[in-house]
Backbone:
């Protein structure tokens, strides 16, 4: 088999047993790899209705299908599990060298079940599997864990996917870390690993991923690599995604003070350009990536955060900065570093802290042991991060995420808990971006910019971003399917601007890598199929129509700042767009997948 | 920065025209520009061994997180340790054509002594044949080294130590100029006064 290995490793942590499952060509063609394959394997292996932190939950790691080859920016892998944060599908993507290595070890995917008796790490040594004792590193951060395992196994080429104390302590938005700076970040897969006593997965892969037509693959890679040094990726290369700050601030969609405002007075100070100028240390790439978006920032000569060093991107900057009304760059860098070390998703961490800051502001929360969180208090923000990871004091409440924290606190604090289905918002205000608002509301993993990709038509001016109208349903669907196709093929979204006809070019690459005929129509249908399968997963886990909504603040308060100031976003507008989206998907008016849609997409074999 | 191999066959046929001994040319990597993507290893394995197995690569990426990245290939030592330790006559020799250490795979027995001896760790052991192999600057490739061609950040170049040192000297000068607050076109003596 070319491109694919045709095998998944099925691991049972309780029995300390691992077997291989053959993956048929039809399954691989239908679900591509990465997110698609991960969700399908999860769907097939998971017993419906199991609690996300129960030993019977299943977690799947799945390589992008070009992983292990030279194809540009294709080192993504997907992690899929039932999310402890949303209770719905939790599919997270990460770059790094992990997918290349796992593929070269001989597996397209790893399915992990059960709970280990004691803290354990899994070592996949090509075709051998070892269950190794991890008690010595239980409690350690992600950076140290990686180094410890490489040292213990004595090979620098071993790649490690690990959790920090946040995952061990079942923080509902704990992430999984790879190569220090690349995380399968959102929806809490780290907590699922923690619930299984699984500290890490280490992989040594010394095999080779064979390719059907390597001359053609090399040619395409060279062309994409050249385009990747041009305007299509300009922002990612310099100053990095933090370049969004000034753009979004100008458009009045830069969330500040927990989405109370949409402009930040200190935007110039925390702009990507300014941070790059004063803090940039090194630019780093994932495997086979010509872009290199990872911008490592370092604090030098500024106490108390002297020496803090971390890969800082826009969503992290927004969440730990303006969303908490903080403009102290060294403190933001330190906070991001702590999140990475403890294994916390930076977006959910920052937005949950911002929720708490607003609760303190409104006197709904009171100081605990003298500790409180105030907007703008950078040192308190830094101090609460280890407390969240260790579930100490106020941290225990915040470790549950904004939705559950608001439910626990009550007092209408859910009004300003900025999440969709429990997943905290990223750094764009949906009131001034209405296609994006729709994408957030209907998103299967909750309010995610990255899965919906629906900010693109709004920000690129393809539509009037302040208008809610018919047609946005089809547009949101189109964007969502582009995103899921990239996530499944395993090509980084940052490369998407380098394609002139994405489906066509990816289909050709697919054919050149695997030797199997693929065309743009089939590839597009695969994307649509995977989107629908995620929805079927959610329905099986108890999704109801009223979950496709946004927090009250979005509808009760008009756009507060910027060019769209005072434009309202009544709930009815969202409802019209949601209905339009269901129709575009071929679903019922209450958002359920219909039999004709299942038949059309070849999903009739999926057990409901 | 121009690449010395931009003209076809520059490395192979025209090298005698170079004023600096070609013996000391090798692939260099700017660790400031290197982003640790490993594309050089892929290109090397593809062109020299028609595989995407990076363990076949004769240039190797060193990545020490979070910020140290550099690819290293044969440094073309003047008195190569690999050559001295090789126990099989003719298995390793200096290619008279370009001054580089070369390996005769028909004679090499894969003893790995050269791997141990190389202070840069840039002799690869073919995982299939278990025989040693080393960078030859893609002497058989008209466009020059495949790794240099694919490097997306222009971190890789074929240079001599003399050219590397020239750049260091120039950088040092610019640093001094900056400290003195003057520009390249101004006379230094006047400023220092």
Residues:
């Amino acid at each position: 088999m070319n491109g694919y290995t045709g095998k998944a490793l099925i691991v049972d942590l309780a029995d300390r047993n691992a077997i291989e499952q053959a993956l048929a060509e039809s399954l691989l063609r239908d679900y591509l790899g990465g997110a698609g394959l991960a969700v399908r394997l999860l769907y097939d292996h998971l017993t419906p209705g199991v609690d996300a932190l129960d030993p019977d939950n299943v977690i799947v790691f799945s390589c992008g299908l070009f992983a292990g080859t030279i194809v540009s920016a294709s080192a993504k892998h997907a992690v899929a599990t039932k999310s402890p944060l949303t209770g719905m599908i939790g599919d997270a993507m990460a770059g790094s060298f992990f997918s290349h290595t796992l593929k070269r070890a001989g597996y397209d995917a790893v399915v992990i079940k059960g709970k280990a008796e004691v803290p354990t790490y899994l070592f996949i040594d090509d075709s051998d599997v070892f269950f190794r004792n991890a008690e010595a590193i239980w409690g350690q951060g992600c950076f140290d864990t990686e180094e410890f395992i490489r040292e213990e196994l004595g090979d620098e080429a071993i790649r490690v996917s690990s959790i920090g104390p946040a995952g061990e302590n079942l923080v509902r938005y704990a992430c999984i870390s790879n190569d220090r700076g690349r995380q399968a970040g959102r929806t809490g897969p780290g907590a699922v690993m923690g619930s299984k006593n699984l500290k890490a997965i280490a992989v040594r892969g010394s095999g080779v991923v064979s390719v059907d037509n390597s001359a053609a693959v090399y040619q395409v890679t060279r062309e994409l690599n050249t385009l990747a040094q041009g305007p299509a990726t300009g922002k990612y290369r310099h100053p990095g995604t933090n370049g969004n700050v000034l753009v979004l601030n100008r458009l009045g969609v830069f969330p500040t003070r927990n989405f109370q405002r949409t402009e930040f007075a200190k935007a110039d100070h925390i702009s990507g350009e300014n941070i790059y100028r004063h803090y940039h240390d090194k630019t780093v790439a994932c495997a086979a990536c010509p872009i290199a978006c990872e911008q490592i920032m370092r604090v030098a000569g500024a106490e108390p955060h002297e020496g803090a060093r971390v890969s800082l991107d826009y969503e992290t900057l927004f969440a730990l900065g303006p969303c908490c009304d903080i403009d102290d760059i060294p403190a933001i860098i330190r906070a991001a570093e702590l999140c990475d070390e403890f294994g916390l998703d930076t977006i959910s961490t920052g937005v949950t802290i911002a929720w708490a800051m607003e609760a303190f502001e409104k006197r709904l929360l009171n100081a605990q042991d003298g500790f409180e969180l105030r907007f703008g208090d950078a040192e308190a923000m830094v101090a609460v991060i280890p407390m969240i990871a260790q579930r100490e004091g106020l941290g225990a409440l915040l470790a549950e995420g904004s939705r559950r924290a608001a439910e626990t606190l009550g007092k209408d604090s859910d009004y300003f808990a900025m999440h969709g289905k429990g997943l905290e918002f990223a750094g764009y205000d949906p009131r001034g971006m209405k296609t994006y608002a729709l994408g957030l509301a209907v998103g299967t993993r909750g309010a995610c910019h990255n899965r919906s990709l629906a900010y693109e038509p709004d920000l690129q001016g393809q539509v009037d971003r302040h208008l809610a109208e018919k047609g946005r349903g089809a547009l949101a669907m189109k964007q969502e399917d582009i995103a899921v196709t990239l996530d499944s093929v395993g090509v980084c979204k940052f490369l998407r601007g380098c394609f002139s006809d994405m489906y066509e070019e990816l289909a050709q690459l697919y054919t050149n890598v695997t030797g199997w005929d693929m065309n743009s129509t089939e590839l597009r249908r695969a994307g649509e199929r995977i989107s629908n399968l995620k929805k079927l997963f959610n329905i099986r886990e108890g999704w109801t129509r009223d979950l496709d909504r946004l927090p009250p603040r979005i509808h009760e308060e008009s756009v507060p700042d910027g060019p769209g100031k005072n434009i309202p976003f009544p709930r009815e507008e969202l409802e019209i767009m949601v209905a339009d989206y269901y129709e575009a998907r071929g679903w019922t008016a209450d958002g359920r997948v219909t039999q004709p849609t299942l038949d059309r997409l070849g999903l009739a074999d999926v057990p409901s | 920065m121009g690449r010395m191999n931009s003209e076809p066959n520059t490395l192979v046929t025209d090298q005698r025209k170079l004023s600096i001994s070609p013996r000391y040319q090798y692939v260099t990597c700017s660790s400031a520009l290197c982003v640790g993507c490993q594309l050089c290893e892929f290109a090397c394995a593809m062109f020299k061994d028609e595989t995407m197995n990076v363990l076949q690569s004769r240039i190797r990426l060193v990545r020490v997180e979070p910020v140290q990245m550099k690819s290293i290939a044969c440094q073309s030592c003047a008195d190569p340790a690999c050559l001295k330790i090789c126990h099989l006559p003719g298995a390793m020799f200096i290619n008279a054509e370009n001054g580089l250490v070369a390996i005769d795979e028909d004679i090499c027995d894969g003893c790995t002594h050269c791997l141990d001896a190389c202070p840069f760790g840039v002799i690869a052991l073919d995982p299939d044949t278990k025989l040693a192999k080393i960078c030859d600057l893609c002497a058989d490739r008209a466009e020059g080294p495949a790794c240099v061609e694919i490097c997306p950040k222009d971190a890789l170049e074929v240079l001599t130590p003399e050219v590397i040192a020239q750049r260091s000297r120039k950088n040092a000068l610019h640093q001094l100029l900056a400290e003195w607050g003057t520009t390249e076109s101004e006379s230094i003596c006047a400023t220092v006064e």
Summary: The radius of gyration of chain A is 22 Å. Chain A is about 40% helix and 15% strand. Chain A has three domains: 7-204, 240-424, 433-600.
